[in-house]
């Protein structure tokens, strides 16, 4: 029998043989500027019939080396997104191009830029690339606004997503940004559109990334950073909805010699309003409830990164993001009890509540990257620390009044407290090994999570706090995950490409609930392991047509606040709570894509999720008292089959439009005994984002953005249609670094829907509005070296941060 050592030696010999058989030649040279100085950081792209065959980056002296198999090629040199040199040749031997001087003649440069213009949309084996340099929004805007022009991406309020995906993560240069909602938008507004090279839309994330979440990825690639440069970016935004909101931010970037520094500070203050109407139809009476809520924005965020280039092939760095937030909430609820037979109001409950909330969020990343050659082989190591703390203290008072407006009985006063702390430590290693035969990647990660929650409930009705032991407990949750992956990417021919990856994750969970009532103590210890494959196959018969198919398996671990058994009381008889014993869900995703030229794409997809979790309103009766309890559990298996059509229009120089329609049929099956029935059916969504140049200098732009969501039947409820219209103006003084923005969101206040359901034979009608109609006025000013864009590296605990949403 062949020993394991003999097998290893045989495998190494086979790998060496495949490299030897693929004969290749080298191309060397040096690129200099008009001052005869070498240009460091120039991107060199080797093209064969418009397809990228290889690429490299020049060193500090402008020297380069690139290798490839024989053929006729075009060699292009890009600096800060602009072609600075181009040459064609037949590669049939080693070639030394000598010293090349970048173009300094503006006419010659313009001619080369026209002939070398990239396709605005490129379809790669595992992603679609939007080259933003040809977009109307590519100048005078920011990263957030530029996403609206990217085909297949939707931006609605403070949400960014990929059409057809339940959630999305945003990356900067292949590293996840561990922010969401308004904080993510504010972060992207700090990135100028001129510093963005392209945006990659990844509907099926490769095995390199965590398998958490049935989500896609948006990867924003930044342009190369020139040395000896600095920049300051000042942002001020005023927003008016029901209340005024102010956001101010300033960032500083510095890059000299081997050191790159980036800092960014944001201060946000103001309030948001929230409305909700909730009606419940019982057999003999009807509850008609309405809630008005005022949420406070009191946010301070600091981002800091430092990168040091040890040598040409080694770099080290660190990044910190700190967030302090005090989202206090004041709310008022009125619930009228109406007799069904007489239609008279018999009594009304009034509840006033205030939630004092203090939270902090700290993320620290330290990394080391070692390049092995100039062709892309490298090893990177990341260590991450994450700490999240939230302290909630809610006091509410409920009073009952008769139809004659006389108080019935005494007031019910209570205090509900919760302290939650999450700690995460993780480390990972990634190895990239591109060769002429194929591109290999492998690595591993280990992550430790500790989640501690202390919950207490006090009855204050008598004036003396009385602890309710049935609603007071400590919850400790520990999660240890080890993962490893391998990825393989290869061009099978000029028209066929494939990529296959496997990620293995093993998770050990220990959950303990400790109560003053020992009969309520619980332990939930379990472990699970899964293999998560990803597979891609792409066929490109010519430059006008592209076909692809892919598959992936994903895991949906519970969001942390879904695990927290903390009860949030709307009034004395309505509350929501988490479930510390939620299990993960698993999803299989299948996609088939067709792309025609640069503008039109079709996608058909199918997904099935098992053990999915959801929140269900459950009616309970205790001691002749009716309680409406919102509880989350692994209730469902879910199947979706749908299609997406995306059309990108840029045929008129002054008009750019990105349009997407997505429709799908969903089927929900309850896997637990629940007092309701599944509602299944077809639904569709339409998004259109339009930008218009209003003057010849292209300094004044208008935006018209619209989205429509059809009526739908989903899970256990039905919902009516809703839509949203946004309008905007943007004026840019590029030479002065000034940009002005005026946006009106949800102009007709139509971004709301009615939800109906029947649970426990009780009909429920719910509608809510999150104050989306608003006007935003913004001014940004950037000065310094306008070419600067500091290198920003993101952290490795993105999977943990996603579960805070």
Automatic annotation (TrEMBL):
Q: What is its main location?
A: membrane
Q: Which InterPro entries match?
A: Beta-barrel_TonB_sf (IPR036942), CarboxyPept-like_regulatory (IPR008969), Ig-like_fold (IPR013783), OMP_b-brl_3 (IPR041700)
This protein's GO CC annotations: cell outer membrane
Q: Which stretches are annotated as coiled coil?
A: none
Q: Subcellular location, in the record's words? A: Cell outer membrane
Arranged from A to Z, the UniProt key words for this protein are: Cell outer membrane, Membrane, Receptor
Domain of life assignment: Bacteria
Gene3D superfamilies to which the protein is assigned, alphabetical = Immunoglobulins, TonB-dependent receptor, beta-barrel domain
Q: List each copy of the Outer membrane protein beta-barrel domain by range.
A: 370-781
Which Pfam family name is an example for this entry?
OMP_b-brl_3
Q: Protein name, please?
A: Outer membrane receptor protein involved in Fe transport
């Amino acid at each position: 029998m062949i020993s394991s050592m003999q097998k290893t030696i045989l495998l190494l010999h086979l790998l060496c043989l495949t490299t030897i058989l693929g004969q290749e030649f080298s191309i060397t040279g040096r690129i200099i500027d008009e001052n005869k100085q070498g240009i460091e950081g120039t991107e060199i792209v080797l093209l064969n019939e418009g397809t990228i065959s290889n690429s490299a980056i020049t060193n500090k002296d402008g020297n380069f080396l690139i290798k490839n198999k024989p053929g006729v090629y075009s060699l292009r040199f890009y600096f800060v997104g602009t072609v600075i040199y181009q040459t064609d040749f037949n590669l049939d031997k080693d070639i030394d191009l000598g010293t090349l001087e970048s173009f300094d003649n503006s006419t010659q440069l313009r001619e080369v830029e026209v002939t070398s213009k990239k396709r605005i949309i490129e379809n790669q084996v595992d992603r679609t690339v939007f080259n933003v340099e040809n977009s109307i929004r590519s100048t005078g805007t920011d990263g957030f606004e530029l996403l609206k022009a990217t085909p297949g991406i939707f931006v609605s309020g403070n949400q960014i997503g990929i059409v057809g995906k339940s959630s999305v993560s945003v990356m900067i240069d292949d590293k996840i940004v561990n922010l969401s909602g308004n904080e993510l938008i504010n972060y992207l507004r700090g990135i100028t559109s001129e510093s963005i090279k392209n945006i990659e839309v990844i509907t099926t994330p490769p095995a390199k990334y965590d398998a958490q979440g049935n989500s896609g990825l948006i990867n924003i690639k930044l342009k190369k950073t020139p040395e000896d440069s600095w920049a300051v970016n000042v942002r001020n935004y005023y927003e008016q909805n029901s209340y005024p909101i102010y956001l101010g931010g300033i960032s500083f970037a510095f890059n000299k010699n081997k050191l790159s520094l980036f800092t960014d500070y944001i201060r946000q203050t103001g309030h948001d309003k929230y409305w909700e109407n909730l009606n419940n139809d019982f057999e003999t009476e009807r509850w008609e409830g309405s809630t008005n809520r005022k949420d406070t924005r009191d946010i301070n965020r600091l981002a800091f990164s430092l990168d040091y280039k040890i040598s040409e092939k080694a770099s080290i760095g660190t990044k910190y993001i700190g967030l302090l937030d005090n989202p206090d909430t004041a709310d008022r609820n009125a619930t009228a009890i109406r007799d069904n037979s007489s239609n008279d109001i018999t009594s009304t409950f009034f509840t006033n509540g205030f939630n004092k909330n203090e939270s902090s969020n700290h993320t620290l990343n330290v990394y080391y990257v070692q390049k092995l050659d100039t062709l892309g082989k490298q090893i990177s190591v990341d260590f991450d620390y994450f700490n999240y703390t939230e302290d909630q203290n809610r006091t509410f008072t409920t009073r009952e009044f008769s139809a004659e407006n006389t108080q019935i009985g005494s007031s019910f006063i209570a205090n509900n407290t919760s302290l939650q702390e999450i700690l995460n430590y993780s480390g990972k290693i990634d190895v990239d090994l591109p060769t002429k035969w194929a591109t290999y990647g492998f690595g591993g990660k280990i992550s430790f999570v500790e989640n501690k929650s202390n919950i207490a409930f006090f009855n204050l009705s008598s004036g003396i706090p009385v602890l309710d032991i049935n609603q007071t407990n400590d919850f400790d949750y520990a999660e240890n995950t080890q993962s490893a992956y391998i990825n393989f990417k290869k061009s099978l021919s000029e028209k066929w490409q494939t990529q296959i990856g496997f990620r293995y994750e093993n998770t050990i969970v220990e959950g303990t609930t400790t109560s003053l009532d020992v009969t309520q103590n619980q332990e939930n210890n379990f472990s699970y392991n899964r293999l998560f494959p990803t597979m891609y196959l792409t066929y490109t018969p010519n430059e006008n047509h592209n076909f692809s198919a892919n598959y992936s398996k994903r895991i949906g671990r519970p969001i942390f606040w879904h695990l927290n058994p903390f009860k949030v009381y709307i009034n004395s008889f309505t509350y929501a709570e988490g479930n510390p014993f939620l299990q993960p869900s698993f999803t299989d995703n299948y996609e088939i894509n067709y792309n025609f030229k640069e503008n039109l794409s079709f996608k058909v997809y199918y997904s099935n999720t098992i053990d999915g979790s959801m929140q269900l309103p459950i009616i309970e009766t205790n001691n002749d008292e009716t309680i409406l309890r919102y509880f989350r559990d692994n209730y469902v298996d879910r199947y979706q089959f749908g299609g997406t059509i995306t059309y990108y229009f840029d045929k008129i120089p002054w008009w750019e439009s990105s349009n997407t329609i997505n429709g799908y049929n969903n089927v929900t099956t309850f896997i637990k005994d629940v007092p309701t029935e599944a509602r299944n059916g077809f639904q569709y969504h339409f998004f259109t984002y339009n930008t218009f140049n209003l003057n010849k200098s292209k300094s004044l732009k208008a935006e018209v953005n619209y989205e429509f969501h059809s009526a739908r039947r989903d899970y256990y409820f039905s919902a009516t249609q809703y839509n949203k219209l946004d309008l905007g103006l943007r004026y840019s003084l590029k030479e002065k670094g000034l940009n002005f923005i005026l946006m009106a969101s949800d102009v007709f206040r139509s971004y709301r829907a009615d939800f109906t359901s029947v649970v426990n034979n009780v009909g429920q009608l719910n509608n809510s509005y999150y104050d989306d109609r608003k006007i935003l006025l913004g001014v940004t000013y950037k000065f310094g070296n306008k070419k600067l864009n500091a290198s920003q590296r993101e952290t490795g605990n993105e999977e943990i941060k996603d579960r805070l949403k």
